[in-house]
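Our preliminary data section would be incomplete without showing what the modeling component actually yields. Below, a chain of 414 amino acids is followed by its predicted structure, encoded as tokens that our downstream tools consume directly.
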Amino acid sequence: MADEKLTAAQEFRRHWPMILAASIGFSFTSVVTSATGLFIGPISDEFHWGRALASSGVSITAFLTFLFSPLFGVFIDRWGVRRMAIPGLILMVFVIAGLSLLTGAVWEWFAIWTIYAVAGLMTKSTVWTASANSTFEAGRGMALGLVLSGSAIAQAFTPMLAEFLIRVHGWRMAFVWLAVGWGTLAIVLCLFWLRDGYEISRKARAMEPAPEQIADAPLLDVPGLTVAEALRSVALWRIAISTFMIMTVTIGLVVHQIPILTEAGVSRGTAAFYALPAGLAGIAGKLITGWLLDRYPARWVGGLTIGATTITFPLLLLPHAPTWAIVTALMINGYAGGTKLQLVGYLTAAYSGMRKFGAIFGLMASVIAAGSGLGPVLGGLVYDAWHSYTPALWTGGVLTLISALLLLGLGAYP
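Predicted structure:
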């Protein structure tokens, strides 16, 4: 980044193309996840697969993301975002389009999702978070909110688009259209406009008289912790534990949301409709939290935002919960859910610095993947054991409160 100090407005006037490119790039990486539910039926019917197998692709990606996120974080520090993201987007286009060629062989299914996981690691949230953090300082919170809103864009529009494509062209061509159409837009924007702090630093380094002497130095020559120092940081451990708890609870709630509501007496159609205000609240959460992060200490913004989620669980536990309680609960969870990645990205940068941000946030990404994968499983196990979601909802409220207190107890920025 340049040495000059810019106001938030100046940063956005200078770097808005990067924000747009990163947001659309991130949205494309969320397309398959957002559309998976619509492809499960057609694929299961054609190949006579069970639903577990037809939906296993996302699980494969989550498992490999958990294992290899730290390594790909190191690659970000070494190569920067642009040299990771653009090849990753290109690979993702070919992989998604390649799903149209499935023949029903199980090994083929697992192989293509393994390749998809590689593309996902090259384009996951760590990449786009690093891009925003490396470019913005005064307006970092809002920049993160805008970039990470890409996933909300995909969640809002992909289901309708995928349903139309499957209905008109069949599931095979639907994969092709999603890959080529959305993917091409993302690649073109990133080719022209994805020029972030890493690229600014690379250009400045190339103009130095003896660049070979600093070839092994981090691409971003800025203050920050080493990975070893980060592992000893109490603040970062608090952020990691808080993140793990809130991801476990909120993702578990999102996955089991429909059965939780139907257990409370809500019809499936009405329960699905209730997801709409929750999704809109998620977009609002990213933008409002971004505005707050640029003006107030992140520990207070994060702690109070996550703490508000605690209200969700007693509302859902109300006997014969009224409509206002259900909608309020889902909107609160949606609002807070929209801020999770934004908060952990901002807090990690604030307490670790940007020198080794890729590697450090890569470790955080493994924590995120672990919580995201564990929450739905635990929710299912609780229901199988008690034939009710009540114990899970009480536990969720307690864990959310602990998660908030961990953030509120953080010290001042180093």
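The first helix runs from residue 8 to 29. The mean pLDDT is 85. Preliminary results of this kind motivate Aim 1 of the renewal.
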